[in-house]
Amino acid sequence: MMAAGLAMKITMIGHSTVLIEISGERILTDPYFGLQGNPAYARPHPPAQSREQLSNVDLVLVSHNHFDHTDRRFFRALPQAVPVLAPAITAWMTRLKGGRNVIGLHAWQQKSFDGVSITALPARHVTFTIGYGIEGEGKRIYFAGDTYLADFMTKVGRELRPDVALIPVTTFRIPMTMGETQAVEAVRRLSPKVVIPIHLGIIPRSPLMRTTDTAEGFCERIRQAGLSSKIVILREGESWTPAA
User: Fold this and answer.
1) Domain 9-33+55-236 maps to which CATH number in 3.20.20.70, 3.40.50.2000, 3.60.15.10, 1.10.10.10?
2) Are strands 25-29 and 59-61 parallel, antiparallel or unpaired?
3) Is the separation of the CB atoms in 170 and 201 below 8 Å?
4) How far is Cα 241 from Cα 4, in angstroms, rounded to an integer?
5) Using alpha carbons only, how large is the chain's radius of gyration in Å?
6) Which terminus of the chain, N or C, has less C-beta within 10 A?
7) Could you report the per-residue pLDDT of 144-159, keeping only the tens digit for each?
8) Burial class (CB within 10 angstroms; exposed 0-12, middle 13-18, buried 19+) of 59
């Protein structure tokens, strides 16, 4: 647990693995520490911190069970008392991957942990998945996980009113998440103050499967659309805290 009184801080570990420090809690999203990727996708940059360095977190949020969002060795190193939240329908799979204190949640179900409120949110992907709303210190964070653009985002924007949105911007020819165009429309529906792009830590090994979409291109499209949300691009190891 982080020392009380410290401001909210968001650190990019890599890909969709993000360390969120809020209300004295250290929350890790979609843990993935593999260095090699898999036969279809490469990991060009290593994570900023190791499994061992992050085994002292207070809470883990799993959006779904794809290889680049769950890490068996991390789960096994995690103290059993640390809750691991996951989609209710596939919580058994998170347990098979090494998760022990797994809590399955349905969309819009809420749990509280030492001053932090977590709400499971809808998501649309090629597998069962959820996003998360995180509330603490009077701030609201939306972690989208892997999702396409869908109508539920309007409700998420209305109900959660996120200060910060962590949303995926894919660079794949066969999109597993939103590309630049869909991500811009998601921002329009969510109306967050700050957007941090995620899901940028793996690339297709085949050049034929890559697109020209980038976090920088997404940022430019936001500007062209006249949206007021601030885009913060975090590379591995970089952190963001809200202005005082």
Assistant:
1) 3.60.15.10
2) parallel
3) no
4) 16
5) 16
6) C
7) 999 999 999 999 999 9
8) buried
